[in-house]
Amino acid sequence: MTYLETIGKIRRRHFVEGETISQLARDFQLTRKTVRKYLKSTDPDPSYTRQHQPQPKLGAFQSLLEEWLKNESQRPRRERRTAKRLYEGLQREGYAGAYDSVQRFVKAWKGDRRPSLTHAFVPLSFLPGAKYQFDWSHEVMVLGGVVQTVKVAHFRLCYSRQMFVAAFPRETQEMVFEAHNRAFVFFGGVPLAGIYDNPKPIVTTVFTGKERAFNRRFLALMNHYLIEPIACTPAAGWEKGQVENQVGNLREWLFTPRLAFADFTELNGWLEQRCRELAQRFHPEQSDRRIAEVFEEERPRLRPFTAAFDGYFEQTVRVSSTCLVACDRNRYSVPADYAGKTASLRAYADRIRVVAEARVVAEHPRQFGRGRFIFDPWHYLPVLERKPGALRDGAPFQQWDLPASVRKVLELFLTQKGGDKAFVDLLLVTRPHGLEPLEVACDLALEQGLATLPVILNHLHRLMAPLPPARLETPDRLRLHQEPRADCDRYDQLRGREATYAG
Description:
single chain; 503 residues; alpha/beta; four-stranded antiparallel beta sheet; 19 helices; 41% helix
């Protein structure tokens, strides 16, 4: 029997059936004072609220707990202790009460200091192609069999609500550039303005009001696409509320339960497809139309996408004596000619480029682990010319993916005296043309059973010899209709004239 059912029965039996207060108190096992209160009450749904909560064990520790709470309120939110941690601290001070008492006290203390007025907001409206919002989120998933935290870049067109998301291993500046390039390709155009938070890759200094000192390279991105950057007020997420809501929704729609993919390429392909599928949802304001329909209306209002921004983070590095440059605790090889020199390292989202003397001298796929060495064996060929013995144990050549026939010739040469130098000579000859002609030459030599240096060099020279020039066909209008006749007597006549003049 519920609380309200009990009150109803007491009132009916007293006022309708005439039962006494004592009889009702005995039947319902209540005090007569409680029965009288129910009979006198005019509220059809009375409720009981305790006016004072006795706290016999916590009372001696309330002043200490209040002091802790005041100190905690001055700390950043992520550094504040929870009620559970405060309870554990009180236990160390001698508190023997329950956790519930501490939890209720903390909740009441925070409630008393919470602003009584609710923030009011003005509804926003955007023109087609006018603005987009950008934000990052951190999602946990399995990539390549390893559980890791992935950084997801979120874009949202403010008018059509069309979304685009792409996953990256980090939130660094080059990832911001690559995310914008991919988003504008996906949208098929560029809006007029973008709304951002204030992270270091975007904003270097936050001044009073809306004034910001934007990152120099980020401004180069904005200037390339002719976008006006707009930075939000710190801790004012409602200024880009659309993308803030998108982060929470996509965490539920896409990233729960935990995803598993082989690599970022497979993951981003799946995310792009899901963005297209989610565009079939109805528009939150134009409820009779789908987001995809509104996006098709907005697309012509975007500025055409012409060329992608060359988005990289650049730093000056010195090439080591082992022909390596360092980036993010990994090392990448550079041609031996630049050992000991200064170069410019450009880190892209997916690759590393080394620029020296105004040209790209090395390029490698970017690695995001630690302590890795990424070699291009061709970079060490000048060193091998002087030290061919390094071919046997040199780290750049241990994992060199050589064609099967070339690998077989190398193994055969290394069993012979001076074989390492002979193989280096082959590499020097074929370097301008790559491994393809060397593979064919080794195949031919192995088929003949004569895998020696002279034989392979002979095949190489024949393969790499320039083709004879094509035969020219003379047009009819340039042909001679009367070909000159060969006459040696004319030469003797000339000699005779020369003798006459001499006399």
